[in-house]
């Protein structure tokens, strides 16, 4: 076309994609970390921290662009929400990595690796969905998928809480300080799963308005 | 009718009323649950869970309608907030019911029944207020009432925390794992009371704008 | 001037200034409280509570004015966010003061006084920034300053968590109930630091839009 009266800023899409790919890389590092020997974890946590810094830069870039762009490709408020919720995901994952090292946790409950596995799948689905935002195509299966992953995360979380606070008869109970540490880790991982769902819900609400 | 210049979608009001009536039913079930023998609680928690599913469906119906309606009876953002905050109330109540069963809690602190009693009163007030949204009449006493119930809930919550973490001299202290479990329950119930206040604050802000 | 086409309501600025000055006064009281003998704390906590009531009144005044003002000096949503986030700061500080007394905490970890010191500095910076909102001048250094204070608060918080949950070899560990109490206090103080950052981020987003 010769000219455009509404010069939609398309530069947001690559930024959202970069944010999500960075999250996927961080989720893989977190999976390595929970599978690693305690002595190997500090270095992996430092790399998750680096990914969080990268994420902060992308978020900042989106916010600056948002404040300077007159006509945005979709609602300003939705761009803000999407960027914030992607940022939240990485904050939670970084916090989980950091606390595992800080608390000098030795053996983690088995369910923790499963929680992180769900996060990896949610991260991969999110990274795949972001480039589709521009054409608003095939996003429906993405948010349905992430919502079902969140249900899976909820069930894992609930089982972990039960094991920690009301261990089955015959199992050796952990000392209460260890319960406190483990509980905090599983809660932070659950927050990360919730944050992925918030990302998906934001995408859904954007897509429905555009349809 | 031939045509309408402002085709206000009135269908939101019955949905908000249904959401609030469902919450009131769930609050009554929760009251039954905390008064029941431990063995009878799982079945009641399952019924609270059912109510939560019903609530999710109503929330979803509101959101779909919101995205498809061009002229809404009040601010889109306020409709979104009202639906979300009603949804939050029920999520908290369901979580409280679930955790009491999951943690195999035996005797609950007495204050817990009082917390749930406040929730029942807040739920009844909310269910009564929703049908009045259409005419924006007599809502003032509703939000003042819910705010005072929240103050009552705060005081109960604070007393419960004090009893749990700094029990009076001469009382037998609970073991710390039990403290952890009870603390989580009373916190979730406090979140439910806060969520009712958020509903009331949203209604207040809608009513003030319309006045 | 004879008339104004855009009758901007300027009365918001003094209200934001009052809110922030009240917060600064409360932060000073909180610093006194954590430095005081346990027996002297209840009276100081009561004065923090008074400050919180004063803050609630200012917040309410802002919200009423917001709902009644047709042309606001900046985005309605931003005024709402700024007022709410100032309110949140004081709620957290009041809760910290209250819990220290309620839990009959004796010796607080040293880092707690440092956390409160950071809050005092953030409060002073916020009180100094609010009057500059009208001319939108020299706000950039304010939000950069508060963001760096938040980093400082994060580091203190993290160290405190480490000391509480994974005390260094050779130190006498606290009993777990005391760990629970201290952990709650340091978390609430961290929430207060986060709330100051939310205030600063809101100011940033307002200033960038206006520039």
TrEMBL record, chains A, B, C:
<dbReference type="InterPro" id="IPR018445">
    <property type="entry name" value="Put_Phosphate_transp_reg"/>
</dbReference>
<protein>
    <recommendedName>
        <fullName>Phosphate transport regulator</fullName>
    </recommendedName>
</protein>
<dbReference type="InterPro" id="IPR038078">
    <property type="entry name" value="PhoU-like_sf"/>
</dbReference>
<dbReference type="InterPro" id="IPR052912">
    <property type="entry name" value="UPF0111_domain"/>
</dbReference>
<comment type="similarity">
    <text>Belongs to the UPF0111 family.</text>
</comment>
<dbReference type="Pfam" id="PF01865">
    <property type="entry name" value="PhoU_div"/>
</dbReference>
